[in-house]
Specification:
Length: 310
């Protein structure tokens, strides 16, 4: 969601559980947990604020500190390059601020989590997430929001009165933000337990595709009409399809190309896909999912890789 401006929603090759700078130990206060993370082009601070759930904040800080260096290695784009637009007016070293709350809304929309690092939604900058949607053991939503520092979408998507552009590939950007942490973990670039990987897949795969009479293709952004579950459920399943079709290295190449050249239209996305496999009719393959028309090769019940066996 965010066009190089704020991001809305969700919902290593290293042997360490978290990437902490060895010479600067983490410090914890009563209301915040801090980590210092060394990345390719400098240091960032991770600050996780909470209102009493220190164990939750410790977990989130550790997963964020592990994910940032792993993601920049996997995607091949340094965090400081990708996220420069998000931290555009802030001095370095940047602080990646994550705020735990019991209720997260954006205007009158109970959104449960969103990324306002850029500041498009007001001066309170950071990533805001409800405890209940990001419990200990399931980093799916927190890592989704961090991934938006590489894949910027259109920040006005849920702002009342904002225009909607049905050629804006929000479905692709949001799906990437959901699937990239899973791909990073599956590739072994980030240390992650089997239970965590299962939890991330289960989180995004939890929403069933509705009956035919209510089903819509998600090139039309359904979030303003109360269609958040179908939008995020289908955008994740689309990425599962692409990962299955392209294989591990092919899918990684797609993510790396996207991180360097963010698509601004559905045609841009199709061009990226054709760059990975030119002989595929990607529009037909994604019919029913993204583009209007009947489902083709993959029907909702057929999508691979949603919740693997433990």
């Amino acid at each position: 969601m965010l066009r190089r401006a704020g991001v809305v929603l969700a919902w290593l090759l290293t042997g360490c559980a978290a990437a902490r700078a060895p010479d600067v130990p983490p410090t914890t206060s009563a209301l915040a947990v801090r980590r210092e993370v060394t990345l390719a082009r400098g240091t960032v601070h991770v600050l996780v604020e909470h209102d009493g759930d220190a164990a939750w904040a410790e977990y989130v800080a550790d997963r964020a500190a592990a994910y940032l260096p792993a993601a920049e290695r996997y995607l091949g784009v340094p965090f400081h390059e990708a996220a420069a637009v998000m931290f555009h007016d802030l001095p370095q070293p940047w602080t990646v601020r994550i705020v735990g709350r019991r209720h997260v809304a954006l205007g009158d929309v109970h959104i449960r989590a969103y990324n306002n690092t850029y500041g498009v939604f007001g001066p309170d900058r950071g990533i805001f997430v409800e405890y209940s949607i990001a419990p200990i053991g399931n980093p799916a939503v927190v890592l989704h929001e961090l991934t938006h520092d590489w894949f910027h979408g259109k920040g006005a998507a849920l702002v009342p009165g904002a225009p909607r552009d049905d050629d804006e590939p929000a479905w692709f950007i949001e799906g990437l933000a959901s699937m990239t942490p899973i791909a990073v973990a599956d590739a072994g670039v980030m240390v992650s337990s089997t239970d965590e990987r299962h939890a991330m897949r289960a989180h995004w795969g939890q929403w069933a595709i509705p009956p035919v009479s209510m089903d819509v293709a998600i090139h039309h952004d359904t979030r303003k009409e109360g269609g958040i579950p179908i939008f995020y459920g289908k955008s994740y399943r689309v990425q599962a399809i692409l990962a299955h079709e392209l294989g591990g290295e092919g899918y990684r190449a797609l993510l790396q190309s996207t991180a360097r050249h963010l698509p601004r239209s559905n045609d841009d996305v199709l061009a990226l896909l054709h760059g990975q496999r030119a002989d595929e009719d990607w529009r037909a393959l994604l019919s029913g999912w993204v583009f209007d028309g009947p489902y083709g090769r993959y029907r909702p019940a057929d999508v691979p890789g949603l919740v693997p066996e433990r």
